[in-house]
TrEMBL record:
It holds the Pfam family Sortase. This is Class F sortase. SUPFAM superfamilies: Sortase. It comes from Streptomyces plumbiresistens. Residues 30-62 are annotated as: Disordered. It comes from the Bacteria. InterPro entries: Sortase, Sortase_dom-sf, Sortase_F. Keywords: Hydrolase. Signal peptide: none annotated.
Length: 206
């Protein structure tokens, strides 16, 4: 796919991830996914530590987040006809996707990974994403055999109407990663009201 860069993603909040199908079917609002702590949300993503040298471009195959027990394959995602980020098939709960027309995880710039918080059968791949804390490790297996290791800078939650496109998708001068799922308030009529976004930067490779 032609490399478009993240500027091609216009006013996107990954809304297709956010139906809340399981909560709607089970009436389990009391078991909604964890949300970022207020202290985490107040951290300035721009105030980050040093980064490891950028890796050459290579498509990713798998994402692992040990602290929340994520170990999932990655599929390539494009854009929908309306210009929003496409999403993995909802029926495949343990599957995430990356924006394959943009930056690959580990190279200089902002790489984008997205996945469902739940589906009709229950919690999905990023159900516990809001429980991540600063300093947590995210590992991405790449097709060239390298593993890109990222460290979480902050975890934030945004209402859909206030989603900061430039802050999330904007260009970066070093290797960075955004991991996105649904979060915020939940309505039985419209699903989740916003998105949880993890901000991380490359701190090593192996």
């Amino acid at each position: 796919m032609r490399r478009l860069g993240n500027a091609a993603i216009a006013t996107v909040t990954a809304a297709a991830l956010c139906s809340g199908a399981w909560l709607l079917r089970s009436g389990a609002e009391t078991h909604a996914p964890p949300q970022p702590a207020a202290a985490e949300a107040r951290v300035d993503p721009g105030a980050r530590g040093s980064a490891a040298p950028a890796l050459p471009p290579s498509p990713p195959d798998r994402i692992r987040i040990p602290s929340i027990r994520v170990n999932a394959p990655l599929m390539g995602l494009g854009l929908t006809a309306s210009g929003s980020l496409d999403v993995p098939p909802a029926a495949r709960g343990n599957l995430a996707g990356w924006y394959e027309a943009g930056t690959t995880p580990g190279e200089r710039g902002t790489a984008i990974v997205a996945g469902h918080v739940d589906n009709a059968d229950g919690p999905a791949v990023f159900y516990h994403l809001g429980a991540l804390r600063k300093g947590a490790v995210i590992e991405v297996d790449r097709r060239d055999g390298d593993v890109a290791v990222f460290t979480v800078d902050t975890v934030e939650v945004y209402d859909a109407k206030d989603f900061p496109d430039e802050k999330v998708y904007g260009a970066a001068a070093r290797p960075e990663l955004r991991v996105i799922t649904c979060g915020g308030g939940y309505s039985r009529s419209t699903g989740y009201q916003g998105n949880v976004v993890v901000f991380a930067h490359l701190t090593g490779s192996r």
